[in-house]
Write a structure and sequence with these properties.
Elements: H1 4-22, H2 25-49, E1 52-64, E2 70-74, E3 79-87, H3 88-96, E4 103-106, E5 116-120, H4 125-129, E6 137-142, E7 145-152, E8 155-161, E9 164-168, E10 172-174, E11 178-180, E12 183-187, H5 190-193, E13 199-200, E14 204-209, E15 213-218, E16 226-228, E17 231-236, E18 238-253, E19 259-264, E20 267-275, E21 289-292, H6 293-297, E22 303-305, E23 316-321, E24 324-331
Parallel strand pairs: 1-4, 8-13, 9-14, 18-21
Antiparallel strand pairs: 1-3, 2-7, 3-6, 5-7, 8-12, 10-18, 11-17, 12-16, 15-17, 18-20, 19-24, 20-23, 22-24
């Protein structure tokens, strides 16, 4: 640790160097240069600020007095962009110290056709001009028109629909499309509300999905309508394909009472792809092969090409072996004849 005497020595030495520098001729020249530099800068700044400049500022917009039973389905912009022209000193004051009051619009003052209100910027130009300096010229207001839609108690529930493209990776498939919630409440003027049958999401593109995907998706905007909520949860469950084979019997239908179908073989193997999660749930009973009497009479041969009459949802790439079977329409002997 420095001793007190050593500290005083360093301080005195440092002070002497500073004093010697300030008293030297070089330091006097430097200080004189700085003095004139600041004087010149001040004159330049005053001259610059005395010129005219253009600047753009934002002024908030507030829509007030909206009744409790009224919902704004399309709100007006939250601010106006105002372009002005004035001396640099005035513009600088706007930039550094001036705060603009919001332009307040009273809901009851404006009525529109079909609940659609359109307000020209010229209607509140005086409200803006009153906040500006007398010398300031108001050049433009953007947007030049304010508009909004509102609904008074008219609403309905509509389902969610996915817009866009989703695709699973190879050997995978999308087992479902789940929205949370699955429907939303939409408010709109009656003429718009009648045309809305569903709430579509913003367009999405998810490809090569190999695991369950969860996203929050915004709903697509419809002018004049408001969705509550306007975002939904999207879940795309992904399953992997596996192959399964079951034996399905052939059944004769619409046969006369004294005739019966004999097929060789009487059962065929049905091979299909299904998701792992449904593998154990799909059985032979979920497949139906009905062979009608009328169909066999029209063939003109004893070969029948096997076709499934029904199969469960969620299966794909179905194959039947053998594809053709031999058949015989056998006469059944009546007892007691």
């Amino acid at each position: 640790m420095f001793s007190r005497r050593k500290f005083e020595y360093i301080y005195l030495k440092f002070s002497r160097k500073i004093r010697d520098f300030l008293l030297s001729s070089k330091s006097r020249e430097f200080l004189i240069f700085l003095f004139f530099f600041f004087i010149a800068s001040a004159f330049w700044l005053l001259q610059t600020l005395n010129s005219d400049y253009e600047a753009e500022f934002s002024i908030p917009i507030r829509l007030k007095g909206v009744p409790n039973n009224t919902v704004l389905t399309s709100e007006p912009p939250s601010e106006l962009r105002v372009k002005v022209k004035d001396k640099g000193t005035v513009i600088l004051n706007y930039m550094l110290g001036k705060s603009f009051f919001p332009v307040n619009l009273e809901f009851a003052d404006y009525k529109g056709k079909n609940n659609h209100v359109v307000i020209s910027a010229s209607e509140f130009e005086k409200k803006i001009q009153s906040q500006l300096n007398v010398s300031t010229h108001l050049l433009s207001i953007k947007p030049d028109t304010l508009e909004y839609f509102y609904a008074t108690g008219k609403s309905k529930w509509v389902p969610i629909k996915l817009a866009g493209k989703v695709a699973a990776a190879s050997q995978y498939y999308l087992s479902d499309t789940i929205f949370t919630p699955d429907s939303v409440l939409v408010y709109a003027p009656a003429n718009i509300l009648d045309t809305i049958t569903a709430a579509y999401t913003q367009r999405v593109q998810f490809e090569n999905i190999s695991d369950t995907l969860r996203k929050h998706i915004s709903l697509a905007y419809i002018k004049g309508a408001k969705f509550i909520p306007n975002t939904v949860g999207l879940t795309l469950p992904v399953d992997i394909y596996t192959e399964k084979t079951v034996e399905v019997p052939l059944f004769g239908v619409n046969f006369p009472a004294d005739k019966v179908l004999r097929a060789f073989p009487s059962k065929v193997q049905v091979t299909f792809q299904v998701g792992v999660s449904r593998f154990s749930k799909i059985t032979a009973d979920d497949f139906v092969i009905n062979v009608s009497y009328e169909e066999l009479l029209k063939l003109g041969s004893n070969k029948y090409t096997v076709r499934l009459k029904s199969m469960p949802s969620g299966v794909s790439h179905v194959r039947i072996a053998p594809q053709q079977v031999d058949f015989l329409i056998e006469q059944v002997s009546s007892y007691g004849s």
